[in-house]
Amino acid sequence: MRSLKVSDVMWNHIEPIRCGAPLTHVVKTLLHNHVTGLPVVDEHRHVLGFISEQDCIHALLVSSYHGEGDPTVDDVMFRKPLTISPEMSVVDLAQNLGAGKPKVYPVVDHDKLIGIVTRTAILAELARTGYGLELPRYANVED
User: Fold this and answer.
1) Which regions span the lipid bilayer (predicted)?
2) What burial class does residue 36 get, using C-beta atoms within 10 Å of its C-beta: 0-12 exposed, 13-18 middle, 19+ buried?
3) pTM of this prediction?
4) How many helices (H) and strands (E) does the chain have?
5) Are 13 and 139 spatial neighbours (Cβ–Cβ below 8 Å)?
6) 84: closest CA among 62, 108, 68?
7) Which of 90, 109, 115, 129 would bridge with 10, disulfide CB 3.0–4.6 Å?
8) CA dihedral sign, ordered 76, 81, 86, 91
9) Is 28 exposed, middle or buried, given 0-12, 13-18 or 19+ CB atoms closer than 10 A?
10) What is the CB neighbour count within 10 angstroms for residue 123?
């Protein structure tokens, strides 16, 4: 189990959020993909920020209250997200999870986004490999 890497459990099928995207697009993308947050990237896939459900909820409440129109991801994203390497051990990552830590981690190789890994994917893989639980592969689902 120690040799299991982030690249073994990451999800690389989702498109990240682009700078300038309207918040309504972000909300649709989060809900459609069943994730609690996504990295925000530039045209070269460099991670510039991270947008979460919580960020969207707050921004939509403020925007609707003040009648300001649709904010963009740039207005509300967190600008210094924690990124991880595809070579990082899943066990090491799991040992660092805790309260206040991200639920979704951008996976970056050579300064470019190559995927995301969720707590759900880590939990499922640890249960499968450590305890032999027969679980469906659903690394993209985050409750």
Assistant:
1) none
2) middle
3) 0.84
4) 6, 5
5) no
6) 108
7) 115
8) negative
9) exposed
10) 15
82-135: pLDDT as tens digits:
999 999 999 889 888 876 788 899 999 999 999 999 998 888 888 887 665 565
Please give the Cα distance from 23 to 39 (Å, whole number). Answer: 14
- The pair of structure tokens assigned to 5 is 């890497």
CB 6 within 8 A of CB 132: no
φ/ψ of 39, rounded to 5, equals -70, 155
Q: What would the pLDDT profile of 20-69 be if each residue is shown by its tens digit?
A: 999 999 999 999 999 999 999 999 999 999 999 999 999 999 887 777 77
Q: Are 104 and 116 in contact (CB under 8 A)?
A: yes
What does CATH list as the number for 6-131? Answer: 3.10.580.10
User: Which tokens is 94 given?
Assistant: 């799991």
Catalogue the E-assigned strands of the chain.
17-18, 37-41, 47-52, 104-109, 112-118
What tokens appear for 123 in the block? Answer: 């939990």
Q: Where are the domains of the chain?
A: 6-131
Please report, as a single letter, which amino acid is at residue 30.
L
